[in-house]
Amino acid sequence: MRPDGALIHAAALGLGAAVLLALIVWATSVPRRDVSIVDSVWGLLVLLPALVVAALLPQTGVRAVAVLAMATAWALRLSVYIAWRRRGQPEDRRYQAIRQRNGPHFQWKSAYLVFGLQALLGWMVAAPLMAAVASPVPWRALDAAGLVLAVFGLLYEAVADAQMARFRADPHSRGAVMDRGLWRWSRHPNYFGECCLWWGLWLVAAAAGAWWTVYSPLLMTLLLLKVSGVPLLEKDLGRRRPGYAEYTRRTPAFVPWRWRP
What we know:
Layout: H1 5-32, H2 42-56, H3 62-85, H4 93-101, H5 106-125, H6 127-134, H7 141-169, H8 189-207, H9 215-227, H10 230-240, H11 244-250
């Protein structure tokens, strides 16, 4: 399945909807001087283009229902979790560094440096969702395999986040390194689950003939492993947690594997 004129038009409107949402959230960030609220709507910036395509090119097959259900569950869980985790917190340190690097008038620059960029990235990541929802190709075995992998990824990520939330809520854990549960086998099990989810959703799109959307899981994997995920987080934790160097020595960064004593 190649993108035809109808899908391209619907996807373009989906991008417009994502940009509009990003700008609305940007406007609320200016008086608060906190652009890190964009993280709370990241999932919605990915979901919204798929919803627009589904509204304009309605499909009633199993694939469209399954993909939209998975994407909605992922987006709402992630948005609620991040908003809950950041309640009452100042601007994230990563965004504070961006603010300092971009000097005066960052409140205006952030409209495109942070929010516009997030909308564009979200739209690109949503490519498998949009293509799968718009496809008339019948359900295949590859759809089922992709859906199983996506469900596994969603559950794995949710369990990892819940374990970390309990760890942070324990006063005795202050200053310590989380190395229990899924975090014993990987330093970033939530990111591993996230990648599994997007590779699974891409398999569903591939079953619909949209193999070309492979750039979406590749982009997500690149962002998590090389750009905004693992590198920034590990640099920050390495400075703030004395035991983190030892944790990195004995625990794989991404793919869960045996713990080294």
